[in-house]
């Protein structure tokens, strides 16, 4: 629905539709597509631009988020990014108008509830205000964060869009503007899964059609009964991401995407250390993941049997290996009279691949609390703006955004709006 709406609106406004490309890249500076602009960077590398515009729906993958998966409602490694690209504009109004029209239709939202973080640079704050947005819903700074398309490429500025929803705030879209030779190039990002669960009035995307087939299995199958809420989310996310990568040509032997596949499998294996994934359940998970991809708009022809056999073997092998490492760690812990130095714990990470949080979990199962230093929590807006718990309520969305941006920039910006 939302994908069709976005592409349809683009066609109505004479945007060309760009083809979607595979997640997996070969002989490139990155191993997989992490944003729609990465798939179409050639458009931004021209020296001169004529007025033209494009829309794209692009599946993306980010291995940087693997440690956040399951812990935060808006974190997922695989998702669909909807993007418009414009070239040759003299100001930001047309791009912003498209963004506002699309977002409000996509979520059945009220434009008067939108909040903008808009820079003074390139006249973007004035462009937002000229579209009828109230000034008290536009946050600006005397100095703004620059954005970049990569090393050696031109920089620009983002206009960010937010929408208050339930007990928090949803980052609903970003529109980047880059000036070159007196005209603007526009990049943008809208996340389909995020828009969809807001449109449907659901608490998170786990209940939406893009995750629900896996959510139903993981939350109701006895094999996962002893898993924590976070661990169940991990399975829902990772199985979907693994299948998406595999159907796009990734293998467990490839160095880039293959490394991400192995990391996800190992994260899953820790949750079931020593348990064997039933073959029938493995096949059901593959089928459910493919249903999720189908709802996202992908008609994948996959060999279920071969895929499930491969994945089950990988998970079972990792599960047995984790169990052996767990037993070795517990034995070492007991021989050290339930006390280990931070240096010793770090060796288990560097030499055996057991993350500190896993070691803490194994120790707690033995009734032992490790003396680990308090983790320094890095503030990330996406993880803080919307919680699984509805008691974590953001009372003043605009103030929350201002404080979050100040934390991001360590207080160096001066508020002007």
From TrEMBL:
<dbReference type="GO" id="GO:0006419">
    <property type="term" value="P:alanyl-tRNA aminoacylation"/>
</dbReference>
<dbReference type="InterPro" id="IPR045864">
    <property type="entry name" value="aa-tRNA-synth_II/BPL/LPL"/>
</dbReference>
<protein>
    <recommendedName>
        <fullName>Alanyl-transfer RNA synthetases family profile domain-containing protein</fullName>
    </recommendedName>
</protein>
<dbReference type="GO" id="GO:0003676">
    <property type="term" value="F:nucleic acid binding"/>
</dbReference>
<dbReference type="InterPro" id="IPR018162">
    <property type="entry name" value="Ala-tRNA-ligase_IIc_anticod-bd"/>
</dbReference>
<dbReference type="GO" id="GO:0005737">
    <property type="term" value="C:cytoplasm"/>
</dbReference>
<dbReference type="GO" id="GO:0140096">
    <property type="term" value="F:catalytic activity, acting on a protein"/>
</dbReference>
<dbReference type="GO" id="GO:0004813">
    <property type="term" value="F:alanine-tRNA ligase activity"/>
</dbReference>
<dbReference type="InterPro" id="IPR018165">
    <property type="entry name" value="Ala-tRNA-synth_IIc_core"/>
</dbReference>
<feature type="domain" description="Alanyl-transfer RNA synthetases family profile">
    <location>
        <begin position="1"/>
        <end position="370"/>
    </location>
</feature>
<dbReference type="GO" id="GO:0005524">
    <property type="term" value="F:ATP binding"/>
</dbReference>
<dbReference type="GO" id="GO:0016740">
    <property type="term" value="F:transferase activity"/>
</dbReference>
